[in-house]
Amino acid sequence: MASRLYAWAHWMVRRRRWVIATWVLLLAVVGGLGATLHGRTSTEFTIPGVEAQRAQDLLKEKFPPAAGGVVRIVVAAPDGETITAPAQLKVLDGVLREAATVDGVIDVSRPAEAGAVSADRTIAYSDVRFADEAPKVSEEAKEELTTAVEPLRDAGMRVELGGSAMLPQTEAGGPAELVGVVIAFVVLAVALGSLVAAGLPLLTALLGVAVGLLGTMFVSGFVEMTGTATVLALMIGLAVGIDYALFVISRHREQLADPDVGWEESIARATATAGSAVVFAGATVVIALAALAVTGIPFLTIMGLAGAGTVLIAVLVAISLLPAVLGVFGERMRPRRSERKSGRNRVPGSWGLAWARGVTRAPAVVLVAGIVGLLILALPARDLRLGLPSYAAQPAASTQHKSYDLLSEGFGPGFNATLVAVVDTGDMPEGQRQGTVTRLRGAFIADKDVAAVSRPVPSPSGDIVVMAVVPKSSPDAEATTDLVHRIRDKAPVVAGVGGALYVTGQTAMAIDVAAKLGDALPLFIGVIVLLALLLLAVAFRSVLVPLKAALGFLLSVGASLGASVWVFQEGHLNGLLHVSAAGPVTSFLPVLLTGVLFGLAMDYEVFLVSRMREHYEHTKDADDAIARGVSSSARVVVAAALIMVAVFGGFVFNDDPIVKAIGFSLAFGVFIDAFVVRMTLVPAAMALLGRRAWSMPRLLERVLPDVDIEGARLPAMPPAAAPGDGEVSGVNISV
């Protein structure tokens, strides 16, 4: 691999103007397609085939009005007054008449008629039902409703909007994310010692992310894609794009510290060695994200493919656009020779060397202490509960959160968890339909965790009957999940007389999605671990190194999940992180975290251990290879990890609770994996393994390809060329 990338980089440098022009043209074309042919992103996480979705499909087919999206207008009377006072009713009636004129609305309920007034008559709600399903209700229609309710506020009443159609769009690119990029630039400047060198990774990463995101927008015109998929593509693409460029540029400047090395030769060698690690590490990220397809869950598959596509572009940028840009700067990328005040040259990587020797002085103690510490961090994951955020998790200032609080205050915490029981009576004898539904409703009412059950509402054909079941507990409570299972346990009784019983609604859908993803997690982790063993065995011609890497990866995932449970489920640090309410961990977070963190962990593993193997190939001294490998790569690995933590950490302050959880878990996971696992446990484990770390059974050695990511077969370093001959000369502008 290194030899091919070496020749490839020479070609890129010598045709740098054409390469840069091609990337700019690609950005323009993809940008035009993404801006003009993009689709609308979805706000719902559904899985075809689960019971809640089958019920929704049945309603859409046989009882369309019941499947439409709802905007719930929640009204609270002024202090000391009631919502049923004539003055309040007059204003409310006028607003509801105006709401009925909004495009797409098919029904507007009246609170008094629907029993939608609280016992103390201070809070009421009206359901504005649309013909379209919730994700398809237009933003224009919701804005019209927002305007239509203003007279209620003018009359002194509190008005908030909730309901299935009010799920906010996921957005990114705010000030918090920008702060992460600024921190990344500062880290790059310190790590590379040059403002120009620090700006190049940002420049190339932003171009790659722009191509990836605009391409994702174009694809959204043809497939249904959640807003979280585009945010994930931005998050991962930006982080790996900066890191991959850092790997190549740092190797390039390290080589240019030798005045006898020409800049073009240095670019080619940096691309061949660090670029090989980038290609291999990037391939693991791409494969890990694409492997989300094995879960069989469409929205997760699309999310993984969107992220994988952006990472693939980041790799291509690092091995094509970046060498061309480095060729434009030429000699100006050569660092100044730094000297100590005493006149002695500073030894590069001296602190990394000291760290490695300190860790390997007592490797068994370090290894045991690190593993025990990570297991302690993982302990909260034993109580992991999966779900989807309710409106309680939306920002406290949002209308969705306020409507949730008002409904809980007026009608109890379970009102926000309302379940929809759907009875298909089409194949049931007509004489038994009413009796069966009546007995079923009585059984619901008798359940200890049910607060109320609505009257049965039949479809026009009479084949479908719908009942709303209000739990006593909130959407995120375990008691609500247990209630859903108890209601579904009554399905065989209905089936015995020819009918079918389903439970749907937002809460039931969240429960079904969580269960499906929980079942998929063990399979996915198994696939990822096997993938890690295979890829690292190919990369390092070793069996023990992949086993060590896979175990370290599992420790990182466990610690990150434990921290996520501690923060988001148990409610610690909620004020600091602006978490509105504690609740279950986002259902697809463990699967997503496993896939993404696997790829990123392998980045650091490949870059760190490849430098160890490079030294071992030259010296055959296992102990010295560990020290020299850490010494030569520590600065870059630390900088790369800090950049990823900064980029992911910026998303922790995003208003979307799902994006917030993803940003936190990835930032924490990368921090733990880079600083505890790779920089500490890996050198300790390698010291205990010694020469055995680089051994492989002869059968496997013959079967597995030798990819040479260390550049062992590159030609000898030629002498530096004289200035000219196409070189870009100029004064150093390093800082």
Describe the structure.
The protein has about 725 residues and is of the alpha+beta class. It folds into 4 domains: about 1-40 and about 175-335, Multidrug efflux transporter AcrB transmembrane fold, CATH 1.20.1640; about 60-165, Alpha-Beta Plaits (2-Layer Sandwich); about 350-395 and about 520-705, Multidrug efflux transporter AcrB transmembrane fold (Up-down Bundle); about 420-505, Alpha-Beta Plaits, CATH 3.30.70. The chain is built from 26 helices and 11 strands. The chain has helices spanning about 1-15, 15-35, 50-60, 65, 85-100, 110-115, 140-150, 150-155, 175-190, 195-220, 225-255, 265-290, 300-330, 350-360, 365-380, 400-410, 430-445, 480-490, 490-495, 505-540, 545-570, 575, 590-620, 620-650, 655-690, 700-705; strands spanning about 70-75, 105-110, 125-130, 160, 385, 420-425, 450-455, 455-460, 465-470, 500-505, 585. Strands 6, 7, 8, 9 and 10 form a 5-stranded antiparallel beta sheet that branches. Helix 11 (about 225-255) runs parallel beside helix 25. The longest helix is centred in the C-terminal third of the chain and has 35 residues, at about 505-540. Mean pLDDT is about 85; it is low at about 340-345 and about 720-735.
Short description:
The chain is of the alpha+beta class and 735 residues long. The chain has 26 helices and eleven strands.
